[in-house]
Amino acid sequence: MRTIRYQEIATAVRRRVAEGHYAPGRLLPSEAELSAEFDASRVTIRRALETLRDDGLIAARQGFGWFVATKPLRQTLGQLQTIEGQMSESGIVAGRRIIEFAFVRPTPRVAAALSTDQVLQVKRVNTADGEPFAVVTVWCPAELAQSLSRRDVERSPFYELLGIALRGATQTIGADLVSAADAELLGVPTGSPVLLCERITTDTDGRPVLYSHHVFPAHRTEFVVDLPTAEPSIAPTGLRLLESS
Amino acid sequence: MRTIRYQEIATAVRRRVAEGHYAPGRLLPSEAELSAEFDASRVTIRRALETLRDDGLIAARQGFGWFVATKPLRQTLGQLQTIEGQMSESGIVAGRRIIEFAFVRPTPRVAAALSTDQVLQVKRVNTADGEPFAVVTVWCPAELAQSLSRRDVERSPFYELLGIALRGATQTIGADLVSAADAELLGVPTGSPVLLCERITTDTDGRPVLYSHHVFPAHRTEFVVDLPTAEPSIAPTGLRLLESS
DNA sequence: TCGCTCACTTGTATTATAGTTGTCTACATA
DNA sequence: TATGTAGACAACTATAATACAAGTGAGCGA
């Protein structure tokens, strides 16, 4: 029976990857080395490797080498913008009620995060199917928010209004007892637990452009975080535990 | 296996920083010294140090030197890290006190997650510098935990004991009021808010191997999630909002 | 105390070399 | 025609060696 050389090599390398001979993130032997080891030409080696690349098992960078790909389990940053959009995907009607809309001097904490001393402060209640769902306060540097009106903010999420390419965010998740004001806005009894989120959103230059504070009633909400593979190779995600003073 | 020199050096220095060879605030050896020590050029040394700087582990001032950053901004080290490991990197002494160690029939929820009907159930209190820090309950399929003793569990984190390559985890974060039992274990007043985490850890084949439930006092702890990133190629974390029934 | 020098540090270039992948052409073989 | 071999070249990467600019801090002298 006739065998296809590059398929043989592909399965051999595939087995090595599966068995962990080549750890994720580490380099495979170079094409030249594999060529010598399998006694096959470089073109054949490449064909084998390329089939594995098509399967997403390995990847290569020119001038660098082949390495075991560590593919994330789930999707990307898209979720960041769409905490509200996510509800609409679930068929929930999301709404916003503006409680406060004002250009103010920020608190020191916000000022430090945004490194500015004049901000637009918007406080609103997010609703899901008409029921209060979250109390959100957003601070945005005044120079970015100059053109925004109260109606703009009521109609669209902040992310869309700014017209800036956002890069990512750092989000802090904590818990506390609900404050009296938030209890009334959310329609929960005093003393209820709430989830707190503080998020600093940055644009593509790394400058912080939004500081937001979210209060969720604990009985209605929880966060799900998918932690991908454990190899640090190229993938930067952190979930860490802090001690707050 | 081929290696990249600056990655080796980066991990070596990272380990030293983690192990406290270089105290926070103190200077690292100069680039020239490190260059001599590792027998690598200054460019390579710099590249290694810069990766650590990107992680927020160290920082530099021109004309002054490299030093350990007091508050690491980001920790890329391993996404799926034990909380103990994170603490020990911060210089906190982590401890465990076993409350319960038994092979039991799991609750339906746990049974469904692990798809087994006989589990090892370990309940313990984690301490940080002697103070109770978290109440953790871990369920593990009995066939995987057969060889574990109570002392094993007390001495080492679960991840190390299993001897299985872990792939990732899905973690749910919520909040609630502390239960009476947990309040006593944690030494917090009744009615305090707590952060709840439920984590399902899977091995490289995708099979769930651990189901764990964590209770943190809210006043001491918060989670930080970094939502990446500039690079679209490798964007591993999804954060989504759920409505719990 | 002030101002200066000097040794040392990081920041940032440039040039060079060896090694790697990406791509192409030419040719052989079943 | 599908498969494999051989070779050449471009583009990229890691690393080294070197040089210079710029900031830091200690010490020294007036």
Total number of β-strand segments of chain A? Answer: 10
> Largest interface, and how many residues on either side?
A-B, 65 and 60 residues
Which bin fits the share of residues in helices of chain A? 25-40%
- Characterize the main sheet of chain A: 6 strands, antiparallel
Query: What top-tier CATH class of the largest domain in chain A fits best?
Result: Alpha Beta
- Strand residues, percent of chain A: 25-35%
State mean pLDDT of chain A (0 to 100 scale).
Answer: 73
CATH superfamily of the largest domain in chain A: Chorismate lyase-like
- SSE order of chain A, one letter for each helix or strand: HHHEEHHEHEEHHHEHEEEE
Low-confidence stretches of chain A: 71-82, 85-91, 228-245
What number of domains of chain A?
2
Characterize the structure shown:
2 copies of one chain form a homodimer. Chain A is of the alpha+beta class. The first copy, chain A, folds into 2 domains: 5-68, Winged helix-like DNA-binding domain superfamily/Winged helix DNA-binding domain (Arc Repressor Mutant, subunit A, Orthogonal Bundle); 78-217, 3-Layer(aba) Sandwich (Chorismate lyase). The first copy, chain A, contains 10 helices and 10 strands. Chain A has a 6-stranded antiparallel β-sheet with strand order 3-4-5-8-7-6. The longest helix of chain A has 14 residues, at 5-18. The radius of gyration of chain A is 25 Å and the shape is elongated. Chains A and B meet through helix 5, strand 6, strand 7, strand 9 and strand 10 of A and helix 4, strand 6, strand 7, strand 9 and strand 10 of B. Chain A binds a DNA duplex (30 and 30 nucleotides) through residues 2, 4-6, 30-32, 40-44, 46-47, 60-66.
